[in-house]
Design goal:
42% of the residues lie in helices and 16% in strands. The chain has 243 residues and is α/β, with parallel strands linked by helices. Helix 2 runs parallel beside helix 3 and helix 3 packs parallel to helix 4. The termini are far apart.
Length: 243
């Protein structure tokens, strides 16, 4: 059985992506920073939970070791990400907040991808790596600059590994979600409700974790077998410039 790693597995996008991969026949090893309070959704599937912090090398090592014990490591889905604990104007952003966000979103993603890539190369059977970036990778939000910077970094991580791993048959792509209904966006629901009602999103609705999960599976199962280093923008058309 092919094994997939999913980080941030107890959040909205992570959980739905893990479930979609389970339904597609993968053994999934998921990691998150909290105690696994409710894993009932995974009953009947080949699923293993690892509690760990993506910014910690020890946690990343445990995650990869656990996955390798389950079988051939074929897919990595980097979902785990954090927003600043406090939104501040870019002129007031602190180093502590920057380090916190970058440590997980960018550094953690980079070095977990490195570890998984080396395992995939060792196996010699190809694989797929999917990074969950954000529309914030190319959209300015001056009250959470560290988040935007971190996701721009994820976009370059995607390109670098796509370039390096292409000859190994390992596809590396990213998904840039727009406004998705998750725990991260719950605190600003009213703001985004108003913006969507005002026409910010041409499709006229919030995105769902399931929308992202469908793309995750397609990028892992070979549907886009001639694509690597690509950004898939799933934002309901929000990126369209209009006159």
């Amino acid at each position: 059985m092919k094994t997939a790693i999913v980080t941030g597995v107890l959040g909205g996008i992570g959980k739905e992506s893990a479930l979609a991969l389970c339904r597609a026949g993968y053994a999934v090893v998921g990691m998150d920073v909290i105690d696994a309070a409710d894993l009932a959704a995974f009953d009947g599937y080949e699923f293993t939970y690892v509690k760990g912090d993506l910014s910690c090398a020890e946690s990343r090592g445990l995650l990869v070791d656990t996955a390798v014990q389950k079988g051939e490591l074929f897919a990595l889905v980097n979902v785990a990400g954090v927003a600043p604990k406090v939104r501040r104007d870019i002129l007031e952003m602190t180093e502590e907040s920057y380090d916190f966000v970058m440590g997980i979103n960018t550094k953690g993603t980079l070095f977990l991808t490195q570890a998984v890539a080396n395992q995939m190369v060792k196996q010699g059977k190809g694989g797929a790596i999917v990074n969950i970036s954000s529309c914030s990778a190319y959209t300015s939000s001056t009250s959470r600059g560290e988040y935007c910077i971190s996701k721009a970094g994820v976009s370059m991580i995607t390109k670098l590994f796509a370039d390096r791993l292409a000859a190994e048959g390992i596809l590396v792509n990213e998904i840039c979600p727009g406004i998705i209904a998750t725990g991260m966006t719950a605190a600003v629901k009213e703001k985004y409700d108003a913006l969507i009602a005002d026409g910010l999103v041409p499709l006229g609705r919030w995105g769902s974790p399931e929308d992202i999960a469908k793309a995750v599976v397609a990028l892992c199962d070979g549907t886009f077998g001639y694509t690597t280093g690509q950004s898939f923008i799933l934002d309901g058309g929000m990126h369209i410039r209009k006159l």
